[in-house]
Amino acid sequence: MREFEYIKRYLKPLDNSIGDDAATLANSSYLVTKDILIEGVHFFSNYLPYNLAKKSLRTNFSDIAAVGGTPYGYMLGLVLPNNVDDLWWESFVAGLKEDNKYFQVKLLGGDTTAHNGKVIISVTAFGIKGDRFIYRSGAGLGDLVCVSGTIGDAALGLLAYQGIIRDSTGRLKGRYDIPEPRVTLGQAISDFASSCIDISDGLIQDAQHICELSNVGMELHSDKIPLSFAAREIVEKKPDYIDLVLTGGDDYELLFTASSEHSNKIEEISQKCRVNITKIGHVTDGKEVIVRDKDNLPITLKNKGFVHFI
Amino acid sequence: MREFEYIKRYLKPLDNSIGDDAATLANSSYLVTKDILIEGVHFFSNYLPYNLAKKSLRTNFSDIAAVGGTPYGYMLGLVLPNNVDDLWWESFVAGLKEDNKYFQVKLLGGDTTAHNGKVIISVTAFGIKGDRFIYRSGAGLGDLVCVSGTIGDAALGLLAYQGIIRDSTGRLKGRYDIPEPRVTLGQAISDFASSCIDISDGLIQDAQHICELSNVGMELHSDKIPLSFAAREIVEKKPDYIDLVLTGGDDYELLFTASSEHSNKIEEISQKCRVNITKIGHVTDGKEVIVRDKDNLPITLKNKGFVHFI
What CDD domains does the entry give (chains A, B) (predicted)? Predict the structure, then answer.
């Protein structure tokens, strides 16, 4: 995880806005964000180009959702092995086409280069600003901490792909393959959420990103973390997997904070947007994310990533 | 060169605007472009990170210059080997900082990922539109074909790096290392140039790009191609290198067409922008770029790239 340190040390001084999921383009209604997917780091070598196309767009659109915006279009950077063939392109372009229609976005340009190496997809996506830009830095003492959908499915889906667990319905793999950016939800909360981030690095790590930029801590309750039926079944059989649920990435749900006075509004939005929203904790005056179990005892995670833990 | 075919076949149907050096963002004054640099394809493994930073920005700013715009800022995508260290970052960021100041641009955000592989820099650059967007598709029968600066230096610089030729003054290497995007010139010609492209793939190949999109041909004269003192010295010793001058890439000069009625204006602009502009030929009703030698005989080049030649 040294890249976080390098970015903070070398690139942040050049760009004060680094830290949010997307940036604004001055004197326009545009948002812009960039996410790179690399073979062997973010996806397997035999990964379907169709899924890859969708994933590379959706991870970016999730960043746009996290600041309250609507996807508009994208620039596509492709670095491809020399032996990529028609079949690869047909599958990849089928994925692009479907998502262009689904999100009503368009390809604006790009660069494609062949090399003697792996597949790398570098998408720069554009969005249109929502009512209000949601920063990561606005979480306030006592705010509710909420998440959309269910957490941990994508990380378990990856385990299923690795043959470590069984995914009888295929839903966990499906969540890993094709995330659903919470665009409608991001727009709906944009006028009152105090902070927001999309969960790409893992629940705890992304919660920690908000804490750092907002100068706060968070107390979360592991028994409140929303699990899908498939995930619950697995965690009940092997409780250790709760670690993975808390720290695994790729869910692309929204983690946001809001003053408790908006509690009813959050329920309404949940119904209107047809997305479950779960209150999983609150903002504290600490500096860290603390997760407590059902007996209110702090959980020490084995896989901490770069996050400092109690 | 199969990527050109793939782009044409699979990506162009998704984006009619593909073909120009930069795209416009609707309802804004922004231009956007994307250029990826890959270790082993676009630069050597021991290449100075300082040069790399500048080159990755300048190749993009050259695209913005080619449509008549002014650089505004950029998103930085970095894919870096796991062993990149502080020295690498310090050199790279020094290059970024200098060019942020030189071009008055800012870093707007990005994504940095470590992997077990090569250095890949994926920049998406933004510009502000000039008076008029210069398309590649506007070249008209009888128009003058002009180039800025001198041609072939970067390709010869690369040969010098490879130890194949001597570059006693270091100027050829310097041109390969740090191109000078013709921003002021691009702006100055934007209200009358009928087409423009920046020479990144090579003079002939880029001329051919204009021909394809404008449905025209070009007749160029090899003895009119402007050479630097250093390049002329080398070509005089070994005339075969004229092939390289005509087809080598990385010069990032502007190749543009304009009606001959603007001939005097072009001279004025050359003086005002302090950039040599040379008329090297004219637009024909053919489909190909034909280069004629001083005896007016068509030259057959050994290294044609993907360009079809007489």
Answer: ThiL
